[in-house]
Amino acid sequence: MKVLFIGDIFGKPGRNLVSSHLPAIRSRFDFVIANAENAAGGFGLNKDSFSSIVKAGVDCVTLGNHAWDNREVLSLIDDPKIVRPKNYPSGAPGRGAASFDVNGERITVTNFLGRIFMNPLDDPFAALEEILEQDNLGAVFVDFHAEATSEKACFAWHFDGRIAALIGTHTHVPTADTRFLTRGTAFQTDSGMTGPQDSSIGMGLDAAIYKFRTGLPQKNEVAQGPSIFNAVELDLTGNLVTRMARYSFLEGQESGKLEGEIFQGVNDAK
Description:
By secondary structure, the protein is α/β, with parallel strands linked by helices. The protein has a single domain (2-197, 224-264), classed as Metallo-dependent phosphatases (Purple Acid Phosphatase, chain A, domain 2). The chain is 20% helix and 29% strand. The chain contains 5 helices and 14 strands. The protein is globular and about 50 Å long.
């Protein structure tokens, strides 16, 4: 199964790039996942943003700490394509994991929030253990939405060999540590963002710089200009990734390019 995971889609520029670029490469993949917690003006998910992302070819949408920022998400949250962080307290609407049958194979997508430098929620380690007790999960893909790189890495190492892949989101900057861990789990600390490249992680520079220089609050606006499409490619066999690569496309290029090392084969450690 060939899977594409698209990093945080940010505002209208990010959605427009997904709508224009994803259809051009969609035939290369069996299943597409995208984090869209910033899709509606940088804060949350609404009906129009969800519709455009799905129409472009995304099969599953994950969320994060901005999951509830847009009230319209409450009318969408039970859609089987949407997965919100599993470690919200019991009673939160929506689901923290969803399984999909794809061309005779199965993939389970799950989403967690980190607790370091963020509003703490329930224990993500215990929440994933609960999921892994279930049968017929197929390949387990984790979107770990967290601020601290150490927390993302420790989470991945703890579940190494029990999940197919853990790709981090939230910091909006792609990391150069695409790799297989010792027992075979595919890992990258952060997939990066799909949105305005010349920005402060998606927001306009003037307001962001002013706030850093003065400490005074400023209204944030989504930045304009060319957007960048950051993603990770995964080839799956059962609950094991056999190949992974960082994918990057800058608006205006003729085609996408693979960046960094492309991992081929399977780790010897099982």
